[in-house]
Design brief:
alpha/beta; Rossmann fold; six-stranded parallel beta sheet; about 30% helix; disordered N terminus; NADP binding; aromatic amino acid biosynthesis; EC 1.1.1.25; oxidoreductase
Amino acid sequence: MSAGGVTGEKVPASQVVTAIAATDQPYAEVIGDPISHSKSPLIHRFWLEKLGIPADYRATQVKPDDLPAFIARRRADPNWRGCNVTIPHKVAMLDLVDDPGGVRDSIGAMNTVVRGEGGGLFGTNTDAAGFYGPIADLDLAGQPVAIVGAGGAARAVLFALSRMNVGKVTVLNRSPLKAAALLGRFGLKGEALPLSARLPEAKLLVNTSALGMTGQPPLDLDLLPLPPEAVVYDIVYAPLHTPLLDAAEARGLETIDGLEMLVGQAAAAFELFFGAPAPREHDGELRERLLA
């Protein structure tokens, strides 16, 4: 990462510390592995510019083994306001920061770390709210739902669904045992199946996995079992038009792309980092920039 910190390229920790120490400007960032695909810097910098806030937002690649040391360095940096957390760190972060909101016992994954007023670090999760926003007007009471994946994002999605009185939930995952454990955790009735299983007749299909993301294997699903009124929601945003969404649109199904959830969860995190609500009245312009 250079002093600007937007490339997502990994550099030695000593260089990162030097680059950060050279400025007194507050900053936040997104961390993950991989991270070069992230659109979070564009989103947060867009909002910072609109509000005239003198701060920065970066992308930093952090390997799993380096996560504890990374958090220790950032804890010691008073200019650091926090970070968004993506694959594969959402569960591991639970052991590294405070959890005043009981995220461990509810969602079980953190996607945001914030420096509190006393200087300590605490974690929360804005994924559930970000996921729920685009489907808030969708009547899913008693309706069957299908989920692909059982990672950190799936935890937030299942947490949100558990509060929407949905019907049977089918989770497809490489490890059905892991998926079954999540259904039990969130008190949802349904079944866990391997990825190769036939889709159920679900009202909502959500891909919470990295399959279909740039550099990852494709998500190969036969959408034929889905009814005409089904909604297909893919949280992957790089590429934005995933093969899953293309296949859904070819069938005439309603689709929701990954930018909807990304911007929603980012807005909640932005206010925590910088103390001001994200200027959502500019969402149209932001989306144009993200698609450029």
